[in-house]
Specification:
By secondary structure, the chain is mainly alpha-helical. The chain has one domain: Orthogonal Bundle (Tetracycline Repressor, domain 2), CATH 1.10.357.10. It is 76% helix and 0% strand. The chain is elongated.
């Protein structure tokens, strides 16, 4: 990583903290510059405005989330564990990062409107990695999709929509992870290879 890339990473981390503490609307570029320890003009050289910074922050968090999830998927572990822990690794960056902020709802709404393309692209890439993990598990006879009569992509989409539904009622990040594990266990059990079949 170059010094310039390290500087951008530091600014992203500082911005994430400020957005979490004050929300998007109340945060100014000056607030972010102060938190990052750089001048306001230097910040404007890096980002066109607050909206541009937020979109790039979302894209960067998606990249981090996907990289962490892929690392989990490549571990030598049972299929069910790899899938569930990859989802948790992804959601740590995407959902958990803002869920317990007092401004979490606002930040999620802003993300849906201001950074929709970045969020959609990241989500599609993540779903693709999960679907390929299912395909590989099928080829290794770890799982059997014929039992649910679904393609890997459709199976993953249903799993992730089910995980997404838990966000509305989870009481904390710890509770959300517990729910992911429960939902994941049900889904992966439904396609587990059965001896003798």
């Amino acid at each position: 990583m170059t010094k310039q890339e390290e500087k951008r990473e530091f600014v992203f981390d500082a911005a994430a903290g400020v957005f979490s503490n004050y929300g998007f609307r109340r945060t100014s570029m000056n607030d972010i510059a102060n938190a990052a320890g750089i001048s306001r003009p230097a910040l404007y050289i890096m980002f066109e405005n607050k909206e541009d910074l937020f979109r790039q922050l979302v894209a960067q968090r998606q990249e981090q989330a996907i990289n962490d999830a892929v690392e989990v998927l490549q571990r030598d572990a049972p299929f069910a564990d790899r899938i569930v822990e990859a989802v948790i690794a992804y959601e740590k960056h995407i959902y958990e990062a803002v869920s317990e902020s007092a401004h979490g709802a606002e930040l999620m709404d802003i993300g849906q409107s201001l950074a929709m393309e970045e969020m959609r692209n990241g989500q599609e890439r993540f779903f693709g990695h999960l679907a390929r993990a299912v395909e590989n598990a099928v080829s290794e006879a770890e799982v059997d999709l014929s039992q649910v009569k679904m393609k890997p992509k459709d199976f993953i989409e249903l799993l992730m929509w089910s995980v997404g539904g838990q966000k509305k009622t989870a009481t904390s990040n710890k509770d959300f992870r517990r729910r992911i594990r429960e939902v994941g266990r049900i889904f992966t059990h439904s396609i587990a290879s059965r001896p003798g079949k």
